[in-house]
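Lay summary. Proteins are chains of building blocks that fold into shapes, and those shapes determine what they do. In this project we predict the shape from the chain. Here is one chain we studied, written as its sequence of building blocks.
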Amino acid sequence: MKLLLKIKYNGAPYCGFQYQPDAPTVQGTLTEKISEALGFPVTVTGCSRTDAGVHALGYVAAVAPRETEKQDTEWCTVPSSKLHRVINQCLPESIAVIGACRVDDAFHPRYDAVGKEYIYLIDDSVTADPFGVGRSYHVKKKLSDADIGKMNEAAEKLLGKHDFSAFMASGSSVTDTVRTLTTLHVERDGAYVKVTAAADGFLYNMVRILTGTLLGAAAGSIDVNDIPKILASGDRSASGATAPAHGLYLNRVFYAEEPVFEAD
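And here is the predicted shape, written in a compact code that computers can read:
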């Protein structure tokens, strides 16, 4: 049995999710603090290796005991609905467990995922919102309804199953660059403009490059009608700029059988 946690975090204080021995990370903090809360060492396995500065609203992580003698026992007696209270007492304010459940040992939060949804927040106010600094991308030009319309027109041409090589940053070891993009939509959400992207998987920096490309369409530096050519080219230099990490949020992770997270 493993514990499965649903987590929110502000990625600003961290050098990404994945553990690094000499830098603060979300995984390292969770491992240390959950071990402290439960009273014995645990391992924490995440659903995604989010980059430095990236945030999460619905991150999923599995927790298991590190000690082999505990692995065949009911090692956590805290009810799932109460776990968030126990663990959050030890976590810093930048991370919060918002739900928990039990899953089989074979469950893997990353490899069993069938899709993910991200949102990207753009602050297009004349003066950057001080409360959005580090949590949204401030652009200098106000996005009109027509601009958002152009962004959605470009987004529609990106939907479906494609080779997204042109929307992947260099440095990735991934060889299969075909993904199915099921959602790419732009809307105004209060003071912000929100980009929502969902797919069966994402390449390295793909959402940030998609966002930069949509912003390029709004600015006129990218012709909406050239989107199919950009896709077909497989050329990263043909697509838009990479939007900064601090506007990106992992919003949801999808599974064939959705976990039922509990929190009283």
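What the prediction tells us: The helical segments are 26-38, 80-88, 145-158, 206-219, 227-233.
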